[in-house]
Amino acid sequence: MKYILSILSAILITTPGFSQFKQAKPTHKKINTEHIKINTANKLIKPTNDHEGFDYKQSINFQNRADRNSMAADVSFKRTNNEFGIPQLIEVHTHIKKSHFERNDFYQLLESQKETLKQTDVIHSFRPINERIEDIGQFHVKANQYANDVRVYDGQISTHFYPDGKRLIMGRVIPNDMFEGLGNQATTTKEQAFESIQGEFSHYQTVQWFENDFKQWSAELVYYNHHDHYHLAWFVDVYENLADRHTYFVDASTGEILNTYGTICKFHHHGNMPPPDGPATATNQDLLGVNRTINTYEVSNTFFMLDASRPMFNVGASELPDDPVGGILTLDAKNTAPQNSNFQVEHVTSSNNNWSNNPTGVSAHYNAGQSYEYFVNTHNRNSINGEGGSVYSLINVANENGSSMGNAFWNGIAMFYGNGDSAFFPLARALDVAGHEISHGVVQNTANLEYQGESGAMNESFADIFGAMIDRDDWKIGEDVAKSNVFPGGALRDMQDPHNNASTNDYGSGWQPKHVNEKFTGSQDNGGVHINSGIPNHAYYLFATEITKAKAEKVFYRALDLYLTKSSKFVDLRNAVVQAADDLYGNTEVDAAKNAFSAVGIGEGVGTNNQEDAGVNPGDDLIAFYNLAKDQLNIVDGTVNTTFLGNPVVSGGLLSRVSITDDGSEMVVIGADRLMYYISINWDSGDVNVSVLSDDPIWRNVVISKDGKRIAALFDDETPRIWVYDFDSQNQREYELYNPTFSEGVSTGDVNFADAMEFDITGQYVVYDASNEIPSNTGASIEYWDIGFLHCWNRASNSFTSNTNNNYISKLFSALPEGVSAGNPTFAKNSPFIVAFDLLEGSNYDLLGANLETGDVGTIFQNSGLSWPNYSRTDNQVIYNLSTLFGDDIGITNLNGDKITPVSNSDDFFIIGAQLGVWFANGDRNLYVSTEDKEAVVSNISLFPNPATDVLNIDIREGSFESFQIYDVNGSLLQTGDLQNNRIDISGIQSGPYVLRLANELNWTIKTFVKE
Amino acid sequence: MKQLNLAILLSLLCIVSCKTQKESLETYEGMILEFGNSGGFTGTIDCYKLMENGQLFKSTDGSNFMEIQALKKDLAKQMFQNFETLGFNEMRINDPGNMTFYVSMGQGKRMQTLKWGGTSQVPDPNLKRFYTNLFKLAKQSSNPVK
């Protein structure tokens, strides 16, 4: 019987929320786990397959869920919403094909989307600041947002128009109503605002760069977001000298300083200098012992390391040598540290234009000039800021304690070079170091990728990519500064092989992940920005070697300049690069981009092992469920659901949802008596055994891994911990639950306790939901539910993961909007990167599906209560709890191929008077596609003939493979052996489609073929 | 004689009981003050964890900490007090940059962390001074504990 959701939902009585449906915050005494005994003898059936599997990729955190309800036919929202519910990327497909655009097109596009953008008058809301028409018929407009004729400081969009009818709106828009009642008339003058800033300087007495008078300042009235509220504020820019710029936001009503940013060291001022004498050149050896010709500048018989020879140099606006406009200036920090109060900076000078005593200065100065030239010549970018701004390098920078610094960094305005330590030669020595650091400046002035998490890793990666293109003779980073006794690969990083000849996870020796399944998930290094950059680095390497460096660098620069934004993630990078490749070139380059990203595990495509489905379980479709009294566990045939196979299998009060191994032979459940029960089923004989796995009456929930090797359980005391037991080693480990965040200092509240759980297909991760509590100043704390992933088992080492470091938890959503809860997660049966879960927002209950790889979220079903979803054997359907006027039943919805969106009008009742259904099967399958810790590669191989009859030949054009396996479409292994003469005898298998897997010591790849 | 022995015993007991108990970082449940920096071209990490009793630990990877020479207990206590006295427990700054500096204090997984080094926020000068002092103290104590 079909049901009509809209009719039912309109007349249903509101059902309880998560916190009501699930249990309230506990008051139980914490259970001591020291004396827990698991009666392993009762575990009658042991799986014999020692499955190896691919890592579940736990890395994607949805900042916000995608907009699900307001999609028009020709509009899609590809990126997540901002905190006001406005999409950060809107893609519009019109039927208007043209190659000439003008500003009116910009406003027409915004007008068509003004409801989504939450604007009332787009003409007054957006004022273009930059328009670019390209030869290829594209049109790009960047615009600032205004309200009440006042600029919204953090509101800015970029719009993109394509000849084929596609339009993009990217960026951050603030709803109009946020500014209602704020007015646009300041009650303080800008002079008063400036005065209040000067008063603030008394607090900065120890900061030496405020010692002089101000030379210049400006003020603009803006709407500024301070602690989630918009203020009418004076935006005051203060310039002290050539390198010092400070920005203040001063409340235009109260005069309070709301925020300030922008800082840079100042170098020693040389006082009044005579008029400049002009540019010069010199040739001296750099730190590599190579003669370099550098541009210098003479002022009154003193030569400065100032390059004023570039087209960007503006002699009229410059005060030389201190304040060049468009110059490249190298300065000396005199072995002081910018963190210390004694930090000093002086000019690098010479009385005779001979710099043989300063090879460090020669290197830094020459390399800065080379890097500048690269961006001008290759990307038509006029210096770091794109507007001919000066380039500053500081040499001889020390650590805080005065020791030599083995590092180089970009501080937002200048490059800083240390003189090396036990691990590094002087950092100014290498061209790719300069290229890397100057590229950070370019990133800052384009997408301004946030320096943490994936966006931070992309920031680092772009610095490496352009660094490698500036120093383009190899794919190594820092090979001229890294000491081989520390870095066995001879370089700090290697884009071709991010493992860099170092031991796995030995980050200190230069090892980086080259695939998403190796991604670092800890909190140090701002979430692994220097570690995970290896993944996009390797994607770039694959892309560039496929289409040439000359094309790849242009594509990546365009992606950075036009499409990426501050909070972009890996999947956004893929989309941006694919789009940029399409803009500049054609299908070959687009395909190369897709393949490169797929090969490193980013986004869709072949060659990734974290996007790869496991083979489908070849057994029967079976459903385990409870009756409404929750005292009978029943099993029915999943295809003919009225056929009860066991009725009931188990009787007696049941507390937790049943958890079942992949082959259907083992089940675990908690009884109403709080004991842990183990059920084994012999599907050949039909024998069912029920035994007590733990006779301690302390349990509330238990789940078993798909291979039956371990269980995860919750105690009845409802404390924030998950207890995991491994049957093979008979060891246990307890994991305290916490809420990780890269944004330390931002509270996400405390975890109260977990509730629903499920193992992933590899047995390494447990997805769970948990109640959380955020203390409130008003006294009433905010409670919400969210979904986390516990990494509890390490397959490679066959051991528990550490429970002492704070890096074993990741979250599905890093920040749920207030009033929204998520829970009851379940994995797709064959796609470990797909989950379904409940989302509760007010009185709306949505059953959602999410692809952790692509970030896509779909609404599978809008329910009237919690769904407790579960995927079918083939993932083409989802079953769930369904409350209607007719009673409580299990419903079913058919799914599209993406497994996260429903087939229209496919909702139906499935099992009447039932709840908490679990779909399972009783066949054996290879749970995983990849094996060991090998890498998936996209190989240049082909199979012939295909279809084949008796012999399958393999043409391997690059590298070699040593072994093969042949699987059927259900994932069952049919044939395996060593690969000899690149020929395989397939005479023993039946006609049909098959998957061939080839492997060598390090890599594997798959190809499909057909046996005739 | 008996009284003397008792006095010696009591003195010994006092010495034993008054001596600061050495804590393990893995099992320690008290307040921790953590600080350090990371980043740059090399991505180097240099960070420390300080216990209230002065025990000090150093790490160059952010996860494996080695105990180094302890600070004096009253000095350590002062640093913990300063964190609150200077209002850092109510301050919010999360602005990582290519070179990031941080100070963090708390218990278990509930840490108040202040990060700076980016271009969006200027750290309070007291915070920078506090960090520099901590760092200097740590660098002076860089000998490992035998």
Set out the fold topology:
The complex is a heterodimer of chains A (1012) and B (146).
Chain A: H1 5-11, H2 18-21, E1 75-77, E2 89-93, H3 103-112, H4 122-125, E3 126-133, E4 139-147, E5 150-161, E6 166-172, H5 190-200, E7 216-226, E8 229-239, E9 245-251, E10 257-261, E11 278-285, E12 291-299, E13 302-304, E14 306-307, E15 328-336, E16 346-347, E17 349-350, H6 359-379, E18 391-397, E19 408-410, E20 414-418, H7 431-444, H8 453-470, E21 476-477, E22 493-494, H9 524-528, H10 534-547, H11 549-563, H12 570-584, H13 587-599, E23 622-627, E24 632-637, E25 644-651, E26 659-660, E27 666-670, E28 676-681, E29 688-694, E30 699-704, E31 710-715, E32 721-726, E33 731-736, E34 750-759, E35 765-774, E36 782-791, E37 793-794, E38 799-800, E39 809-811, E40 820-827, E41 834-841, E42 844-851, E43 857-863, E44 870-871, E45 877-884, E46 887-894, E47 908-911, E48 914-920, E49 935-936, E50 941-944, E51 951-956, E52 963-968, E53 973-978, E54 983-985, E55 992-999, E56 1003-1011
Parallel strand pairs in A: 5-7, 15-18, 18-20, 49-56
Antiparallel strand pairs in A: 1-2, 2-6, 3-4, 4-5, 5-6, 7-8, 8-9, 9-10, 11-12, 12-13, 13-17, 14-15, 15-16, 19-20, 21-22, 23-24, 23-48, 24-25, 26-27, 27-28, 28-29, 30-31, 31-32, 32-33, 34-35, 35-36, 36-39, 37-38, 40-41, 41-42, 42-43, 44-45, 45-46, 46-47, 50-51, 51-54, 52-53, 52-55, 55-56
Helix pairs in contact in A: 6-7, 7-8, 8-10, 8-11, 10-11, 10-13, 11-12, 12-13
Chain B: H1 2-18, E1 31-39, E2 44-51, E3 56-59, E4 66-68, H2 73-85, E5 99-107, E6 110-116, H3 125-140
Antiparallel strand pairs in B: 1-2, 1-5, 2-3, 3-4, 5-6
Percent in helix of chain A: 10-25%
Instruction: Indicate the CATH architecture of the largest domain in chain A.
Output: 6 Propeller
- Mean pLDDT of chain A equals 79
CATH topological fold name of chain B: Mago nashi protein
